[in-house]
Specification:
heterodimer, A: two-stranded antiparallel ribbon, two-stranded antiparallel sheet, elongated, B: 315 residues, Rossmann fold, 8-stranded mixed beta sheet, 11 helices, 8 strands, 37% helix, globular
């Protein structure tokens, strides 16, 4: 990260770039990482709805499960920002999200 | 309330809050603010009182907000929002600015129950078209869990400790909804982060009423470090708060009071889950004895009795 000096900063404490907090990579806080099983996921949107960050991305990426079911959407985790709270894994109705330890968990 | 979002599939995909804010893992207020902004859309100006969300979302020179945002002190958030709303009105009248932007205050329980109560009351009394949202995590969490007017009876905090003389907070939780309803504003409602569809519909409804006057929404938002529970339980605990009848969902809409699902079934006590389900999951209530739990239950029953009489009178 480039250190700004007082000359670079706008007057009055304004922040001119919207949502630039995404440069804070809060994913480094994590001790456990959620992993979505794309074949078990039923695309119900519940993990996406309850994520506080939001670190669950709703992508328009078609996916065909092993059993041949086709989905237009894929849910993926933004590991740069996920803090590993585990709400998604806890709320998932089909238990398609597993929490895996970051160190020693493989 | 009007229904704008019927199912989970109708909820909007755009994000206006985060990621990268420095809230704790599993933060309840963060879920609340995310859904407030998603429901409100891009045409909104947020005035934020000091509190957890302000401290964590605006670590200079970064901001987690993708909409116009103004940070003010604890005590003047509603006053500053009144000014913003009046300024927009004047600029529109003079033809300088053509905007339909709505003004929304986001404040915590400390900034609403205690420090900002006078400015909130003033704003409601003057009738500014501002939506005031209180996210209630039931103590001053970002300064280290001090009790506030919103902390419930018997809850442990660092300034209402548990020992041989004291058993957590001595006083009961302030009934902010009744205070707000007594101002006879067009719309006031309670919401819960475990029911984002209900929350989003209430925000949209409240924003539509702002031409008539102020609106108020009280959102329950659990806090893992302050309530002392593992962070993955945030939504479960929020849901239990409503299912046990501890935090009923209801709305005041132009003088009519209506209970919202799932609380509309809870007037019958047997439909509510036992309060121990909610209490036993939280470390701040770990010291409670049987009698204390009975007393909490009695207080909740009293509140439901009060609510049922309100529904009868204003339903």
């Amino acid at each position: 990260m480039k250190q700004l000096t007082w000359k670079d900063l706008p007057l009055g404490g304004y922040v001119l770039e919207p949502g630039n907090a995404r440069k804070n990579l809060t994913g480094t806080w994590r001790t456990e990482r959620p992993v979505i099983d794309q074949d078990a996921c039923i695309r119900c949107r519940i993990c996406w709805m309850y994520c506080p960050e939001p670190a669950i991305l709703e992508l328009k990426k078609p996916y065909t499960t092993k059993s041949g079911k086709k989905y237009d959407l894929t849910y993926e985790i933004d590991y740069d920002h996920c803090k590993g709270c585990g709400i998604c894994a806890h709320e998932c109705p089909v238990k398609a999200i597993k929490m895996v330890p970051e160190v020693g968990g493989g | 309330m009007k229904v704008y979002f019927r199912t989970i599939k109708d909820l909007p995909g755009e994000e206006y809050f985060g990621p990268g804010q420095l809230t704790c893992a599993g933060c309840g207020p963060s879920i609340a603010v995310r859904w407030l902004l998603k429901a409100a859309g891009p045409d909104v100006i947020v005035v934020n009182a000091t509190g957890c969300i302000e401290v964590t979302s605006t670590s200079y020179p970064y901001t987690a907000w993708s909409i116009p945002y103004l940070h003010v002190a604890f005590e003047n958030s509603a006053a500053a929002a009144s000014g913003v709303e009046s300024a927009i009105k004047v600029l529109r009248r003079k033809g300088i600015l053509d905007t339909k932007a709505r003004v929304m205050v986001i404040a915590g329980d400390g900034g609403t129950y205690d420090i900002g109560l006078q400015s909130l009351s003033g704003m409601l009394e003057r009738g500014h078209g501002v939506l005031y949202v209180l996210y209630d995590n039931e103590a001053y969490m970002n300064t280290g869990i001090q009790r506030s007017g919103g902390t419930p009876h018997f809850a442990w905090t660092t300034t209402s400790p548990v020992g041989s003389k004291l058993k957590g907070k001595v006083q009961r939780k302030k009934d902010i909804m009744s205070i707000v309803m007594a101002h006879h504003i067009p719309y006031a409602a309670t919401a819960n982060i475990a029911y984002p569809i209900d929350l989003a519909n209430k925000v949209k409804t409240a924003l539509e009423y702002l031409d008539e006057g102020p609106a108020f929404i009280h959102v329950l938002a659990p806090c893992p470090p302050g309530w002392r529970y593992p962070e993955e339980m945030t939504v479960e605990i929020a849901r239990l708060a409503t299912e046990t009848g501890y935090f009923p969902l209801y709305e005041w809409d132009h003088g009519k009071i209506r209970l919202n699902p799932p609380s509309n079934a809870h007037l019958d006590k047997s439909k509510r889950k036992p309060i121990t389900e909610y209490l036993k999951r939280q470390g701040r209530f770990a010291h409670l004895t049987e009698e204390d739990i009975k007393e909490i239950e009695k207080e909740i029953d009293e509140y439901w009795d009060y609510l049922s009489r309100l529904v009868k009178a204003f339903g």
